[in-house]
Amino acid sequence: MQAAATEHLITPARNIEGSLRLPGDKSISHRYALLGGFAAGTTRLTNFSTGADCASSLGCVAALGAGVTRDGATIEIAGTGGHFQPPAAPLDCGNSGSTMRMLSGLLAAQVADPPGSFTLIGDSSLSRRPMERIRKPLTAMGARIELTDSHAPIAIHGAPLTGIDYTTPVPSAQVKTALLFAGVQAEGRTLVREAVRTRDHGELALRAFGATIVRSLESVSIAGGQSLTGIEAEVPGDISSAAFFLCAAALFPGSNLIFDALGLNPTRATLLDVLTALGAHIGVLNLEEKHGELVGTVQVNAPPHGLTGTSIAGVLSAQLIDELPVLAAIGPYTQSGIRIRDAKELRVKESDRIALVAANLRAMGAEVVEFEDGLDVPGGQSLHGAIIDSGGDHRIAMAFSVAALRAQGDTLIRGSESAAISFPEFFDLLEGVVQR
How would you write the chain as a 3-class SS string? Predict the structure, then answer.
């Protein structure tokens, strides 16, 4: 039940069972929205993400001259043919780092007429997140970008760009996508190298809109001067949103949860491998490809004797960066615990997720050891209900809603409205599959 406008009360569950069809993948929705606004022609999207972050991407392309209309579950975007109009006001990216970073790549080559700049702003959380990671490579391509103490607001003075060969110092799909978005407008070829392969939705979206992309084991490149054309697509269900339900189902022996039309991109589906390693039974059915993205039906059942334990580090940490909070939150319920390293990036997300996970686990009575780049969460622990501080972070609010299902007593999630940033239906869908 809803305790207050910004709080949600979670009571313990005895099982998880049912079927779910989740809102569209946020990563794909962002990229389709931005490219739909940039491309020539019309883009029609169904099952677009319902989160506030993706609405920020739609709002920004609309402010740049694209026509954005909704007809029930369908979003139609009349593209600008590669030429954005100067907006009447700063482009408000809300809480969305994806919008701000990737849109910067598209704007870097846009010369405002009359001469001027594109200004990108965000809320207080977004204004604390690092933006030097996009300024440096886009400046090397020829754009002029001004930050405020390495953060937003961002002023972009678009200019003719030249392709570069760039190695990302921190694994980031957002930075990679920003450079590819700039590269499709640049002279010559832009090549992005990454030590850890990050999610490839940007490459697949560019291909869907008509661009030619060259992929090797450790790099991706794009030639400039290519034109893009609008598409019709159904966005697959968001596996990062599914993560909370997958982890919840994995906690209850006898559970049975089915996801229809779920996105199963190999660069995103690592969570299924981790849950399998923990002992959960995962089945994948009806696998098909749509615009380069794999989509299928997933069934999860918990192991009869509980989850085992695991260590997550290196490449795994980068691939699971969004799912690490919920994995840590269920760590006490595993047999041997969950160890996380090489995840320092969690400290510069919507909140310091490492610190918040540790604080909230302790509030529920768990032992946890915090490190600069991760956590040790011992297994075999019992948690009790508590007051959870989400820190205004959607993933913290949802992760501890899952942990609360196995706790003794009720748990109050403060700042639960933050879930709307990525997943406004979360609490209703959770109640729909919880058995008490």
Answer: CCCECCEEEECCCCEEEEEECCCECHHHHHHHHHHHHHCECEEEEECCCCCHHHHHHHHHHHHCCCEEEEECCEEEEECCCCCCCCCCCCEECCCCHHHHHHHHHHHCCCCCCCCCCEEEECCCCHHHCCCHHHHHHHHHHCCEEEEECCEEEEEEECCCCECCEEECCCCCHHHHHHHHHHHCCCECEEEEECCCCCCCHHHHHHHHCCCCEEECCCEEEEECCCCCECCEEECCECHHHHHHHHHHHHCCECCEEEEEEEECCCCCCHHHHHHHHCCCEEEEEEEEEECCEEEEEEEEEECCCCCCEEEECCHHHHHCCCCHHHHHHHHHHCCCEEEECCCHHHHHCCCCHHHHHHHHHHHCCCCCEEECCEEEECCCCCCECCEEECCCCHHHHHHHHHHHCCCECCEEEECHHHHHHCCCCHHHHHHHHEEC
Question: Which position has the higher pLDDT, 355 or 112?
Answer: 355
Which residues are designated catalytic?
322
46-65 pLDDT, tens per residue? 999 999 999 999 999 999 99
Could you give the domains of the chain?
Answer: 7-24+236-435 (3.65.10.10), 26-233 (3.65.10.10)
Q: Mean pLDDT across the stretch 239-266?
A: 97
pLDDT-derived band of residue 217, with 50, 70 and 90 as boundaries?
confident
What's the whole-model pTM score? 0.92
